[in-house]
């Protein structure tokens, strides 16, 4: 099993890059310099390369250390987003802002949005609920949350909404699948006649796909699963093709594990929306959150 790098050591490495030396980095991190030196030596041993050049005039990153520090910044930023999202998931006795989000939004967009919001409104206690898009709309309509974020193609009557992001659904297969080697796009009829791995009823992804293929008689799905991650894993395992948001498969597409199969004449672009109950103008922390998201697009 792979041994994960120590986050404190990665923070020290970034600190050397920022502050120009190990002593300053250790002081910024609140660590005694001998302990900081030992942590960095353990990291160098684990990674098998020299990261810090030590000398009488001080310490500096080696070229290899500079590269590792660059990637360490991304890891530390992602870790902070994880902590922000986890903090929002904890149920507070008196939350001031209750947010409900569909699976796609919760997995790929909410951590960044809530992290940015908490950086300017750390006084607001946030509770995050995760459902599919239909359940989010139900929660908003019933007053169980202040604002919801959905990936469905439509919003129920009686709720207000605003577009906060866009994404696109694509047909996905493993790189070894015959469709990955096709020179011509699939036809819509070919896709509609193929058993697929699909999300559960009520999800925005499922609803978008069903509407796009509503004119066709379709076979029973291969599998019906409750999250994009489960669908993605099944596709990677060779169970069959699926239709998912590009947000859910960015890494697998970049690495070549999955391939997008084009479908002639089929546009599965969609709008991701914030939804809320009347009145039309969303006020309070929920309104601040939505306006912050709109400004950051």
UniProtKB/TrEMBL annotation:
Family (UniProt): Belongs to the LysR transcriptional regulatory family.
Protein name as annotated: LysR family transcriptional regulator
Keyword Transcription regulation: yes
Keywords in alphabetical order: DNA-binding, Transcription, Transcription regulation
A Pfam family that the UniProt record links to this protein: LysR_substrate
InterPro entries (alphabetical): LysR_HTH_N, LysR_subst-bd, WH-like_DNA-bd_sf, WH_DNA-bd_sf
Coiled-coil positions: none
Domain HTH lysR-type per the UniProt entry, residue ranges: 5-62
